[in-house]
Amino acid sequence: MPASYAYLGPEGTFTEVALRTLPEAATRELIPYVSVQSALDAVRAGEAEAAFVPIENSVEGGITTTLDELVAGHPLMIYREVLLSITFALLVRPGTKLADIKTVTAHPAAQPQVRNWLRTHLPDALWESAASNADGARLVQEGRYDAAFAGEFAAARYGLVPLETGIHDAENAQTRFVLVGRPARPAAPTGADKTSVVLWQRDDHPGALRDLLGEFAGRGINLMLLQSRPTGAGIGNYCFCIDAEGHISDRRMAEALMGLKRICLQVRFLGSYPRADIRPGEARRTPPGTSDQEFLAAADWVAGCQDGRF
Asked: Which H or E run includes 118?
């Protein structure tokens, strides 16, 4: 396997900035790809050790392009996550004034984060999406658009200047990125972990989603993301992408996943990995009756009943 990481490019994306915060990135060749799909396919094809892609932002929730790629195709696993605070700059060619801007571009996930600013300052500008924010900057450099929303750090890379900086509709906006590789043994639990899965219902019936969520709730597992995605099998057919607190090696998480495997048509395990938002000592305490010790004690009691030892 080549010692390289694929990422959503070109150079100068927020994805690249977030990737470079990982210590191991300093020892890998970082290769930009034109899309999330092509970066993940590079891992599936053995052309890259892992791919680093955005998966969620605090304004719009899950990034559907990434979720759909993890739902479909040959299975992949998440091994790390990074949170990056996001503010945008309006990048233009030198000499461009705000009144000159008729067209703007950026990645589709950027639009909800600058929508109000755009409505206030450039209400008549035409928006068109780009493959990434940095690609939008490249298109402005080439003269195809008047301005791009991107990181201020991308200006020098593409010969542009930041006309406005610190643009954001929501304070403290963040994007979550994940390092994705081929399936293998998950990293050891840290005490502050997250488990990601995709669930397909066996059939559509009243309370079907409640049944799925009950496997977590009954074991005191908090959910951090729940997003439905169409399966492509017809209107009303959805799978569910879920992030839950805990690690697959935790008894309560393992039992929840076993319960889901029993009742779901399909379960895709996307990995257990350290959370980026807290440190191990900051993780919330498990509810009473859901610790590993209590699960083991309950199993021992059942075994005792079976053996006549109760």
From this structure: helix 111-121
31: left (phi over 0), alpha (psi -120 to 50) or beta: beta
Please, what are the averages of pLDDT over each run of 10 residues along the chain (310 residues)? Answer: 87 94 95 95 96 93 92 95 95 96 94 93 95 94 96 95 93 93 94 96 88 94 94 86 96 96 96 92 85 90 87
Distances (CA, A) of 207 to 34, 95, 162, 165, 204: 41, 60, 52, 48, 9
Q: Which among 106, 195, 113, 173 is positioned nearest to 145, based on CA atoms?
A: 106
Could you give the CA distance from residue 309 to residue 289 in angstroms, rounded to a whole number? 22
Residue owning tokens 């950026």: 106
The answer to whether the beta carbons of residues 19 and 7 sit under 8 Å apart is yes
CA distance linking residue 157 with residue 198, whole number of Å: 38
- In degrees, rounded to 5, the angle at the alpha carbon of residue 256 between the alpha carbons of residues 51 and 264 is 80
Q: Are 16 and 30 in contact (CB under 8 A)?
A: yes
pTM: 0.89
Distances, alpha carbon 260 to alpha carbons 201, 209, 247, 289, in Å: 10, 11, 15, 20
Which CA distances in Å does 81 have to 15, 22, 76, 178, 193? 12, 9, 14, 4, 10
User: CA-to-CA distance for 48 and 155, rounded, in angstroms?
Assistant: 28
What is the C-alpha to C-alpha distance for residues 258 and 81, in angstroms, rounded to an integer?
25
Question: Using an 8 Å Cβ cutoff, are 211 and 187 in contact?
Answer: no
